[in-house]
Amino acid sequence: MAVMAMAAALRGPGGRFRWRTQATAGGVRGSARGAAAGRQDYNLLVIGGGSGGLACAKEAAQLGMKVAVVDYVEPSPRGTRWGLGGTCVNVGCIPKKLIHQAALLGGMIRDAPHYGWDVAQPVLHDWRKMAEAVQNYVKSLNWGHRVQLQDRKVKYFNIKASFVNEHTICGVTKGGKETLLSAEHIVIATGGRPRYPTHIEGALEYGITSDDIFWLKESPGKTLVVGASYVALECAGFLTGLGLDTTVMMRSIPLRGFDQQMSSLVTAYMASQGTRFLKHCTPSRVQKLPDGQLQVTWEDLTSGKENMGTFSTVLWAIGRIPETRSLNLENAGINTNPNSQKILVDAQEATSVPHIYAIGDVAEGRPELTPTAIMAGKLLARRLYGQSLDVMDYSNVPTTVFTPLEYGCVGLSEEEAMARHGEEHVEVYHAYYKPLEFTVAERDASQCYIKMVCLRKPPQLVLGLHFLGPNAGEVTQGFALGIKCGASYEQVMRTVGIHPTCAEEVAKLRISKRSGLDPTVTGC
Amino acid sequence: MDNEDGRRRRGRGGASGGQANLWPVRSVGGVHGSPFPGPVLAPPPASRSLSRSGQAGSDTEALAQPPPPPPPRAQTSPGPVKVGTAPNRRLGSVRGVLVSSPPGRRARLSSPGTGRSSSEAREELRRRLLGLIEGNRVMIFSKSYCPHCTRVKELFSSLGVQCNILELDQVDDGANVQEMLSEITNQRTVPNIFVNKVHMGGCDRTFQAHQSGLLQKLLQEDSTYDYDLIVIGGGSGGLACAQEAAILGKKVMVLDFVVPSPQGTSWGLGGTCVNVGCVPKKLMHQAALLGQALNDSRKFGWEYGQQVKHNWETMTEAIQNHISSLNWGHRLSLREKSVDYVNSYGEFVEHHRIKATNRKGQETSYTAAKFVIATGERPRYLGIQGDKEYCITSDDLFSLPYCPGKTLVVGASYVALECAGVLTGLGLDVTVMVRSVLLRGFDQEMAERVGSYMEQHGVKFLRKFIPVMVQQLEKGSPGKLKVVAKSTEGPETIEGVYNTVLLAIGRDSCTRKMGLDKIGVKINKKTGKIPVNDVEQTNVPYVYAVGDILEGKLELTPVAIQAGKLLARRLFGGCLEKCDYINVPTTVFTPLEYGCCGLSEEKAIEVYKKENLEVYHTFFWPLEWTVAGRDNNTCYAKIICNKFDNYRVIGFHVLGPNAGEVTQGFAAAMKCGLTKQLLDDTIGIHPTCGEVFTTLEITKSSGLDITQKGC
Fold first, then answer.
1. Out of the domains of life, which is the source (chain A) (predicted)?
2. What sign does the dihedral B114-B120-B126-B127 (CA atoms) show?
3. 20 to 30 Å CA-CA from B56: which of A387, B237, B315, B439?
4. Domains assigned to chain A
């Protein structure tokens, strides 16, 4: 872990100075830049160096404020830890998409002979090599974030923070040294961490989570993924794509909160690619066998029977919990939702304490997405220090699930649209299509499907778009803009397609569900 | 490939009869190429007894003034004509029958090149009226408040006859229409009624005709034409138009005939896109991308034998198999929709009549009320020694039975660059000979970036040279050719030896050998392109054109499809929507794909002036490229905004992987008035390439550095 050494080296100076020294140094810098933090050490203190926190800190610094970021990665139960940048960079979007890409490349290697490439068999995958490449890239990003903070004169502390009072936090270094920091405004952006089903015997002891999978040096081997969240399906998808025997165990429905028709197509495609599914099952016990394998016992909720299986790795992806427990929020009087433990915020991202804010995954009711956290952080800094009044618009946030067949969506699911507007007022246009590249490669396109949910009344405002197919993220982004512009079905239909692409199928959706006609696109 | 004897299906009755009930209920009126938003269609009869309406009357009928195709006029611009004041009011319903409003845009008639004489405007109006009269079984010129008009409408309604109605009091230029009608019919009053192109007269004469049985006779008079519509050319536009017309209950024929290329290449139904264009091109592009993916995959941990060779024959066979299935699919689709397909070469011999010549030289003739020309284009040759004998074009490349080897690509069109990119990606030694600029018509900054990426990835460019001679050194598959080229700037000449020379210097319209002169359809003498007005109508009212042969329009499959479909809907479906040629997105599938929508920077500056524009741009590094170790600061995003129109995005350009997929949605957003603010307010999808457009901050005018450091 070269980066750890490097990070430690960087951390050195920060750790050596006492906080008062820092404050003085900062004060000089601050006044030189025309900002005075008043009685506090900083204008802004950001707790959490993830996507939202860093964006907010950098924006505030750019507006001339004296800013500090404190970030500390508590090692996972398996001992995995990482550098600056938060979930997205270290144990989320970035490594996930890269390993997803590795899996997609496996598919392309299989396609290649159809396109005339003589690829000698056997084709094998070396997890070590991939993991090293991915991890090196992530480390370069950690470094990049450090450099960016330095460039913008944001003070970075690698300490674990907790509130002392409503303007002060106490930070503890890895070595146990304490530092007090105070600020006029405090932003909590500590994110979340995977949840362990601690009630299950052996879960904590033998299981891993998404915090660990991307940092494994060796292939996880035969894996049981427990959960039906997008994290669960994405992990199971790339493990299958890399040639590992992978099973997903889910208690109820896949991708809760997403359009359920799309969700079932996502899992159907995964099943066709070799991912096993154990539906309506819950694990009850994990035991380590003498050979190091893990024996998992589970209950089939349908039959009530108990089953058993042996795996090399058990990955829990049953949800995430916000990182609020060690913050001593009560010392500052910050209210949380007792059920979710998330911090309650208003439209301005303010907590129950007016000068303390919360953004990103730790805030109640926010989408847990990097770009929303980034934008919320930036907008918050601009409101605080840039005379801006712009508040974050959390509606119509597009997202993409990077399962083997990618699922991009923006706006309402079909269920949600029906619930809000009534079935008789909603028109759904849909199509099964075949990506051109699939034809020669003889790939099955049974799950390549697009659905546009519109109001029925002309001009048929688009409420939601759901796209399942290759490059779904790229396809969805532009249409998200369209929906933001208030696009109607007619307007989308009047957009000329780009031929031959998958995205053009969106502009050719003619069959409504109501019509009952066959939505399979034929010809070209 | 396509051996069906066209005769087999000839003479088959109007199979479309059973489809008459497919008239869309929302139907407003079968407006024949008219910009009038007005003609209102009485509701279609509930009964299906009204089979295919024979709206095409006989030429020999005693029309008050028959609608002969007007003689070719010295009209330079076929664009939309402003007839009086713009008739842009929407009409409501007839007798309380709700007629849904046309889904079209506001029917604006403002023509870009105004300043045409009133005589031209009058001529245009006459043409449109004749079109209405000719295009509708029953055409009533009416006024909504006139009781006589109401009586006539009720008469037809009671007869269960569908009629098209133009309410003169509800269109803005009703007075002009009335004047023109009086010129055509010597009748100034309304109602003014035409049945099967025969001028009935007013209310009284129509009732008299009803009593005498003349009206019924006229109504029963079926078309004396063989078809309602003949489409010449079975490509994207032609097929779309034909099928749509058939869906609307019309009797339709498609003539398609592929004249073999000089190298003898021929193909099946579906036109350029399917056979020698988009489809094989994108598939070969995919083959090349997979070569890149194979390289990348090792960095992502995949291991396999070091030597990976590409087998041209395997690839082309797979691609050709797919194309055959598409050809077959098109045949099937025509059959399902009861469109008669004839694999013959069509030529006009007289008005409304076409001669079809099949492969064996057998001739047949067919007549139709309306024609759509959709013959497309074919690659151009240089006209130098040896070009037709030894060079190939994109017509030949995709089915070439052998690997082309070391290749010279002549030209800098997107076809040239795409082909060069594919061949290089498959491991061949490729040189592109360019006379002047790359991708003329596209944003030149983007074009140069496309070119420099290709150059960095092995494509050689010979700039400012044109070939003067191609000589065969050796026969073979491939053989060896010597190419002599001369500089465009001086006396310098160079020589090179290649296995294959691919010409991609442009395309010529297939309009010169189809008897258009016989019926007076005007073409641009220089380019062969056909000028049309904004409803794709040529100067001969019953002849329309779609696709690549249109003058001043885009040469793109989806545009042709859209134009063809909408044309059929306007002709036969009562729709008014016109094809919108603005903000059409497209993508060039070069090794690094280039997607764009709207204006190039040059064009934007020309139209809006530089000081009124703000250009935002940035490089970006796709996440997938990082671990793969591919070039940073190569992929590029640019938008052009109009400062004085709320920073509306008027040009969108992206150079990067999956550019087509990225561009499509933004094109839809541009249709809805995309602004910079909206881009800024939209959340990105992480991690994608498309998200870069939601975080554009650096303006070109600022001169700030856009290179990416780290993430």
1. Eukaryota
2. negative
3. B237
4. 42-191+323-386 (3.50.50.60), 195-318 (3.50.50.60), 405-515 (3.30.390.30)
Cβ atoms of A291 and A200 closer than 8 Å: no
The confidence score (pLDDT) of residue A160 equals 97
The answer to whether B681 and B660 are in contact (CB under 8 A) is: no
Q: What is the 3-state secondary structure (H, E, C) of A287-316?
A: EECCCCCEEEEEEECCCCCEEEEEECEEEE
Classify B387 as helix, strand or coil.
Answer: helix
Higher pLDDT, B62 or A192: A192
Cβ of A481 within 8 Å of Cβ of B674? The answer is yes
The pLDDT of residue B711 is 43
pLDDT per residue as tens digits for the range B444-461: 999 999 999 999 999 999
C-alpha dist (Å) from residue B157 to B52, B91, B144, B203: 17, 19, 16, 14
C-alpha span between B554 and B584 (Å, rounded): 8
Tell me if A123 is assigned to a ligand binding site.
no
Residue keyed to tokens 């502009």:
A507
Q: Report the percent of chain A where pLDDT is more than 70.
A: 92
The strand pair at A294-300 and A281-288 is best described as antiparallel
Q: Which residues 57-116 in chain B show a CB within 8 A of chain A?
A: 100, 103, 105
Rounded to a whole number of angstroms, the distance from the CA of B612 to the nearest CA of chain A is: 23
CB nearest to B671's CB, from A144, A491, A498: A491
Looking at chain B, which residue has its C-alpha nearest residue A400?
Answer: B685
E strand segments, A368-436: 399-401, 407-411, 426-432
Q: What is the DSSP string of A240-296?
A: HHTT--EEEEESS-SSTTS-HHHHHHHHHHHHHTT-EEEETEEEEEEEE-TTS-EEE
Is the pLDDT at B223 greater than 60? The verdict is no
Considering only CB atoms, which chain A residues are within 8 Å of B319? Answer: 440
pLDDT reading at B23 higher than 80: no
* pLDDT per residue as tens digits for the range A438-463: 999 999 999 999 999 999 999 999 99
pLDDT of residue B138: 87
pLDDT at B117: 67
Task: Flag whether residue A125 sits within 8 Å of chain B, measured between CB atoms.
Answer: yes
Q: For an interface test with B, which of A501, A504, A518, A520 has the most B Cβ atoms less than 10 Å from its Cβ?
A: A501
Q: Rounded to an integer, what distance in angstroms lies between the CA atom of residue A324 and that of residue A329?
A: 7
Whether the CB-CB separation of A156 and A149 falls below 8 Å is answered with yes
Q: What is the pLDDT of residues A154-205, one digit of tens each?
A: 999 999 999 999 999 999 999 999 999 999 999 999 999 999 999 999 999 9
The span from the CA of A448 to the CA of A469, in Å, is 5
- CB nearest to A98's CB, from B627, B658, B683: B627
